[in-house]
Every structure is written in structure tokens, then in C-alpha cells.
Design goal:
Chain lengths: ~270, ~375
């Protein structure tokens, strides 16, 4: 199936600004699905609120565009009730880890078979450029006019600690990695997190003097490095890319099935 | 006797009703005084191959059942005041996206943490207007366990019929009280199953295009029709729209589908209303004391009657007006500061004749409490 067959072209043009990284994520995601040969009918995409969340409208899967921060809770209900479906949950940084932080850690704890994609642009784009829990300190945002003092979460470390069994990170510069990691995340049985650094030239780049979308993408090349690289040892400030966690742990729906068997035996 | 008779709490009667109606998915979070519903569901659902999940909070609980409803399940969650407050945004989502689901609120005293272990009926207006924006809602209640069972079945039927969340407003007294419950035979109570679309694969399916009768046939997630579900104003495909005609049409659809059927949705019971000079209007546990008083006074020749409401929203104003038309006075008996009384006052032609008999101290209202108010109204002193 061609990539464009996965799109709902009827609903284009999309709402994203020129240069937004989210289109690259969409592209990478669809290539992953296409390469896996998945049927559109077996995928449910659940999203919350924000620029990132609008991705669900443009893709011809079963799509559930929900409320802010709660996509993983809705997805948990879909997955639990129909475990054979593949759940993909794209979220923005605020959606996933500010308002949705609680659902994020609990989905990870359960190790429910959901692919969570954190499209991290370090800003609330749709509301016009407020700092997020992934902005980190010294960032200029409309709600941080004197630069932010809030420390940032590390999505990878948080996911690991909460129990996610697949954790990867890449950027919109590394487009092939997007497809590769999302593919592996979908194939992984358990809660999988793929963090993708995605540029917001309109609100983050402009306020923080990071230049154009192309400049911001080039910057992703400069500030990131593969896991365990020599460059990282020399410069600890570099952000690591790669697959950080890939391990087996009982998956929630499978465990539930076992419990149902026990219950039916009248135990 | 072949029927199954049980001696149970009201919360368990609700569970039995939900299972009879065909619930297969429950998500919840523990909270007094509704917890027994989750506990019984945790035990019963796996035994029938259903799903129970304890979520991280009440927000997630309602979100999870909405997700499960979209795959074709009949779904339930149960909570009390603080949890119900947390659910309000997702409740509005279910209204907007027209997702069938049933939400039980076993009411306790509030606001805030309030008085968790004592009864109250303080969430009546929250059920109506708790979530933001113009909308209509169905909220039902019951005063005894047989009714709790039947109203729960009705809640599922209405949720499926109108593609809407339905709220069951029970209270702590009914939830925790134990009494006899006769579980009806299969087929004894009508059940409404999900209306599935007959549109074939490959043909454009419109999840939000009502049929002539106003109903919207659904297609399960995982089925052959892929569509978008959103809390934004949306067109007949479920795709976001800001077109004035779409926004106007959807608001009207959401409100009209219920408000235009007020009388059809009205469930109530009437006792000695035909010649009643004084009418009590009550619901839930408070209606038990009201009925006790009515029977007691009838025995002594006083023309007292009771209108027990089971549908609280949409408020059956026409029926209340008609029933109360010739009464000298109407006393609304409830465990709050007069939430239903306000609606009764708006419904009747002479609001001056509507009075309140209430208790708001966590103590269950006794027949004598109502009698004292009646005597004051009658000018007979307490």
C-alpha cells in the first residue's frame, strides 16, 4: 500500500505551521506502518490535545482524538477491550508529561501493549508558545518572559523508571531512525515509548533564536549523539539517541487473560 | 421459585442490573461509598470473560470505558462526589462524541471531601451542568434495590438508544442499605443492544449522520469502517469543523435528542396522587421516608400523596406540573438545599406553593422530619 493511501487526503491541508517537525513524524510513522504491512483496520490511533494530537485526524486508521493528557487512558480502554488491535498514541510533550504524566507512568507500569510517541518540541504550540515540563531552564516562552526556571523531565529516564519495556529517542533530523524505532516499538509487546525531538520554529525557535526550521533540524544533528558514543563521553551535554530499553516483561492484557482463566475455574 | 433472590446492598443491586444489561467492561477507582460496585465487578466480570481494570484515577476510569465502548462493549464506571468532579471533562467528551456509557455516582455529602460515609443528594445539579458547555444529559435514580436493578438496566438501554452517557445518581443510603433483590429471568426486562451500521465495507460510512429516527448506527473500532472521533465540533465523518452551520446543527442535535423526548424519558412512580391535597415530590433514599409518611397519614385519613421521580434529567417538568396542579402545597423531600425543588418551582404554575423538607447534616431524613414541615405549611404547628 502506498503511503498516501494511509492518509485522509480529504481533510488536508493540515493545521501545522510551515517547518513544523510533526509532519516528519507523520511521514516516519506511516512508513513504519507501511513497511510492517499492517492493515488500516487493525490500528487504532488515540491522541489527546495539541498540535501533535491533530495527527490522528489525517490518518486513515480508527482514530480517537480525545481530551488533553488522557489519550493513554482512552487507549488503555480500547486495548483492554480488544487486545488484538494495535494502539499507537502520539502525544506532545505537555500532553504526555504535564497533564498526562500520571497516565503515562501508569501505562508504563502496567506494561500494556501500546506504542507511545512523544513528539517533543519543548513548547505548547497550539496555545501560542508556553513552556512545558520538557522545556527545561533558560528557555524563553510566553509564560517565561524572563526565561524559565523549571527543570525538565528526561523522557527516557522517566519511562525507564516507570517500567516501559521499550524506550527509544531520536529527532526529526534522523528520519530513518524515526521509522526504524516506531517499527520496533509497534512490534514490541509491552509499553513502548519513542521520544522524537520535533522542531517548533513558530513558537520555540523564534523565541529562543534557534533560526529557521532547517537550522533547528541541523541543530538536532549537533546536539545529539548515538548512545554510548565517544562524543558523549567528551561532551556530557549531548543528548543520546538510540534504543535505551528493549526487554521482556509480562504484558498487561496477556496477564489479564491468565487471570480470566483462573476466574473461570472458580478460583 | 425459579427466580434468583438475593439479600444485597444497593451497590450490588446495581452490579447485578449492569450484568443483566450486558456490561462487559468496567474501569474504576476506589471511593466511598461506591467502592463495592468496583469490588463486585472485579470479581464478576472475569468470571464471564469481561474486563475489569482499576485505573489510576477517576479521570482515567471514564476515559478507559469510553475507549472500550468504541470497540462495542457495554461499559460502566462508578464513583462518588470527588471522583464525579474529576470525571466532568470526559463526561462532556462522551456527550460530544456520542459514546454510550453508564456512570454511577453514589452520592455522599459535599463539597470537597465532605462527609464520605454519610448520605446526601447534593450532586443533582452537578449531574446536569457539571461538564461545561450546552448539552443535555440523562440522570436516573432509585429508592430501593429492585428499582436500582431496573433503573440500571434502563440506563444501559438509554445509553445505547441515544448514544449518550447516562448518569445513575444513587446515594449512600441506598448504596449501602441491604434489602431483598429478585433477579429477573433472562428476557423479562427488555435490553437494547448496540445499533450497528448496515453500511457495507468500501461504502462511505458517516458515524455522525443521524437516521430519520434520530439514531446513529455505530461501527466498532477494529471493524471495516475507519472514522474519526473527536471532542471538537465535527461533521458527519467526525472530522473537526468550525463551520457555523455544523456547530449550530451539532449543538441542537445533542440537546434536542434528549430534551425533545422529556416525557418519553420520564420515569416516575406515583402513590395516592388522585385526590391528594398535599403532594410530596421525592427521589432516591429520601423517597422511602416520604412514602412511609404518606402511607401513615393515609391510614389516618389525610389526603397526602407522593410523586417519586426516577428520571431527574431531563427534568420531567410537564409531568410534575400536571400531577401537582390541584395540590394545595407541594413539598420536595431531598437531602440537599433544594436542588430538585428549584426545578419543581419552575415546573408548577404557582411556585409559591412549593416547599422544601430536607436534611443536610448527613443524617437520613425521617418521616417525622417531613411531617414537621407539612404541619408548618398547614399552619398546625409542629
Amino acid at each position: 500500500m502506498a503511503i498516501k493511501d494511509y492518509l485522509r487526503e480529504r481533510f488536508f491541508p493540515h493545521i501545522w505551521c510551515p517547518g513544523c517537525g510533526h509532519g516528519t513524524v507523520l511521514n516516519g510513522l506511516l512508513r513504519a506502518v507501511e513497511q510492517l504491512g499492517m492493515s488500516r483496520n487493525e490500528i487504532v490511533m488515540v491522541s489527546g490535545i495539541g498540535c501533535s494530537a491533530r495527527i490522528s485526524g489525517y490518518i486513515d486508521f480508527h482514530t480517537l482524538h480525545t481530551i488533553h493528557g488522557r489519550a493513554l487512558a482512552f487507549a488503555t480502554g480500547v486495548k483492554m477491550s480488544r487486545p488484538e488491535l494495535n494502539l499507537i498514541v502520539p502525544m506532545g510533550d505537555g500532553d504526555a508529561l504535564a497533564i498526562g504524566g500520571n497516565h503515562f507512568i501508569h501505562a508504563a507500569r502496567r506494561n500494556i501493549d501500546i506504542t507511545a510517541i512523544v513528539m517533543n518540541n519543548r513548547i505548547y504550540g497550539m496555545t501560542g508558545g508556553q513552556f512545558s515540563p520538557l522545556s527545561g531552564p533558560d528557555i524563553t516562552a510566553t509564560t517565561a518572559p524572563f526565561s524559565s526556571i523549571d527543570p525538565s523531565f528526561d523522557v527516557v529516564e522517566l519511562s525507564k523508571a516507570a517500567g516501559a519495556t521499550f524506550v527509544a529517542r531520536t529527532t526529526t533530523y534522523h528520519v530513518k531512525q524515526i521509522t526504524d524505532y516506531i517499527k520496533q516499538a509497534i512490534l514490541h509487546e509491552g509499553f513502548a515509548v519513542v521520544e522524537i525531538l520535533s522542531q517548533c520554529p513558530t513558537h520555540f525557535g523564534r523565541k529562543n533564536k534557534e533560526g529557521s526550521a532547517v537550522d533547528m533540524m541541523k541543530r538536532y544533528k549537533e546536539v545529539t549523539t548515538p548512545i554510548g558514543s565517544k562524543a558523549k563521553q567528551e561532551n556530557p551535554d549531548l543528548i543520546e539517541r538510540g534504543i535505551f530499553v528493549q526487554k521482556e516483561r509480562p504484558e498487561y492484557c496477556k496477564e489479564y487473560e491468565k487471570m480470566v482463566e483462573r476466574a473461570m475455574k472458580g478460583r | 421459585m425459579s427466580k434468583k433472590v438475593k439479600f444485597v446492598q444497593g451497590n450490588e443491586a446495581c452490579v447485578e442490573g449492569a450484568l443483566y444489561a450486558g456490561v462487559t467492561f468496567f474501569a474504576g477507582y476506589p471511593i466511598t461509598p461506591s467502592t463495592e460496585i468496583a469490588e463486585h465487578m472485579a470479581k464478576r466480570l472475569p468470571q464471564i470473560g469481561g474486563k475489569f481494570i482499576q485505573m489510576e484515577d477517576e479521570i482515567a476510569s471514564l476515559c478507559a470505558i469510553i475507549g472500550a465502548s468504541l470497540t462495542g462493549h457495554k461499559v460502566l464506571t462508578a464513583t462518588s462526589g470527588p471522583g464525579f468532579s474529576l470525571m466532568q471533562e470526559a463526561l462532556g467528551y462522551a456527550v460530544m462524541a456520542e459514546i454510550p456509557c453508564v456512570i454511577v455516582n453514589v452520592m455522599r455529602g459535599g463539597p470537597s471531601t465532605g462527609i464520605p460515609t454519610h448520605g446526601s443528594q447534593g450532586d443533582v445539579n452537578q449531574a446536569r451542568w457539571g461538564t461545561h458547555g450546552d448539552h443535555a444529559i440523562i440522570a436516573l435514580t432509585a429508592s430501593g434495590h429492585q428499582d436500582v436493578f431496573e433503573v440500571t438496566v434502563t440506563a444501559f438501554n438509554l445509553a445505547e438508544t441515544y448514544r449518550t452517557p447516562v448518569i445513575l445518581l444513587f446515594d449512600e443510603v441506598v448504596g449501602h442499605m441491604r434489602e431483598r433483590l429478585v433477579i429477573p429471568e433472562k428476557g423479562e426486562l427488555p435490553l437494547v443492544e448496540r445499533l450497528k451500521t448496515s453500511v457495507k465495507e468500501g461504502v462511505d460510512y458517516h458515524p455522525y449522520l443521524p437516521r430519520e429516527d434520530g439514531r446513529l448506527p455505530m461501527s466498532d473500532f477494529g471493524g471495516v469502517h475507519r472514522f474519526n472521533v473527536t471532542g471538537l465540533y465535527h461533521d458527519m465523518w467526525g472530522f473537526p469543523s468550525t463551520k457555523p452551520s455544523v456547530v449550530h446543527g451539532l449543538t441542537h442535535h445533542l440537546v434536542d435528542k434528549l430534551e425533545n423526548r422529556v416525557n418519553k424519558l420520564a420515569m416516575y412512580k406515583e402513590y395516592f396522587l388522585d385526590d391528594a391535597e398535599y403532594i410530596l415530590v421525592s427521589y432516591g433514599s429520601a423517597a422511602r421516608s416520604a412514602l412511609h409518611l404518606v402511607k401513615d397519614r393515609r391510614f389516618r385519613g389525610e389526603r397526602l400523596g407522593l410523586l417519586e421521580l426516577q428520571t431527574l434529567w431531563p427534568f420531567p417538568g410537564d409531568i410534575v406540573r400536571e400531577k401537582c396542579e390541584s395540590a394545595r402545597a407541594v413539598i420536595v423531600v431531598e437531602l440537599n438545599m433544594g436542588q430538585v425543588m428549584q426545578s419543581v418551582k419552575m415546573a408548577v404554575s404557582d411556585s409559591e406553593k412549593v416547599f422544601l423538607a430536607n436534611r443536610i447534616d448527613g443524617v437520613f431524613i425521617a418521616p417525622v422530619d417531613i411531617l414537621n414541615i407539612l404541619r408548618l405549611i398547614q399552619g398546625k404547628g409542629v
